[in-house]
Specification:
alpha+beta; 2 domains; 4-stranded mixed sheet; Glutathione S-transferase Yfyf (Class Pi), Chain A, domain 2; 9 helices
Length: about 230
């Protein structure tokens, strides 16, 4: 039988509560998907700060859990069949926790797949594009003389916000009345775009009335507020 202590990552980040889900993360837009979901479901978990600015996600111990060297990752000591399960990729973690708890994903097969497609929309489009906009607007790319890359990601970010805005017309949440993993996947990225990436005016965010109202509703949820800070650097 596999034990939690068999995972090399536990030597660097020891588990004080080995019976709980172990979260290895940082409160980035990808990282908070896992922490918000864990807060929303009420599952017992233990967060471990993996400081990507100190390259901790590329240590041998972390790479043994996620060979791609990205946060978040989890180990559930009570996985399928009662065996520990290690998972990386934030979308996979959301789907796993939704299925484990029966929360935040519709039971109806058609609506389940509709929800999953919007999770993939975030994973494939919103995350990569918003991340590139952040690079060119705030980080090293800001000093590039050629502003065409920045404009390309501004335009594409506005287009994606438009897609989301149309989807939210007449809906409280991406799936209508039901708050789901599609919202959990997307809230952190949209919030990050206009706060940490400082792109609110750049993408004319306030012209997307449905998105702004949806974001306000999401940020009003106590579990979202807690999850956005877990695990944060001191």
């Amino acid at each position: 039988m596999t034990r939690l202590s068999d995972f090399p990552i536990t030597t660097r980040w020891p588990a004080a509560h080995p019976e709980c889900i172990q979260l290895y993360s940082l409160n980035t837009p990808n990282g908070v998907k896992a922490s918000i979901m864990l807060e929303e479901t009420g599952l017992a978990y233990e967060p471990h700060l993996v400081d990507i600015m100190k390259d901790e996600s590329h240590t041998a111990e972390f790479l043994a859990l996620n060979p791609n060297g990205k946060i978040p990752a989890i180990i559930d000591p009570d996985g399928p069949g009662g065996e520990p399960l290690a998972l990386f990729e934030s979308g996979a973690i959301l789907l796993y926790l939704a299925d484990k708890t029966g929360q935040f994903i519709p039971a109806d097969a058609a609506r389940r797949w509709e929800t999953i497609q919007w999770v993939f929309f975030q994973m494939a489009s919103i995350g990569p594009i918003f991340g590139q906009l952040g690079f060119f607007n705030k980080f090293a790319g800001k000093s590039y003389e050629d502003k065409r890359p920045l404009q390309r990601y501004v335009d594409e970010s506005k287009r994606l916000l438009g897609v989301l805005d149309v989807r939210l017309e007449g809906r409280r949440w991406i799936m209508g009345d039901d708050y789901t993993i599609a919202d959990i996947a997307t809230l952190g990225w949209v919030n990050n775009l206009i706060t940490f990436y400082e792109a609110r005016e750049l993408v004319k965010f306030d012209t997307f009335a449905n998105v702004t109202a949806w974001l306000d509703r999401g940020l009003a949820r106590p579990a979202v507020q807690r999850g956005l800070l877990i695990p944060s650097r001191a």
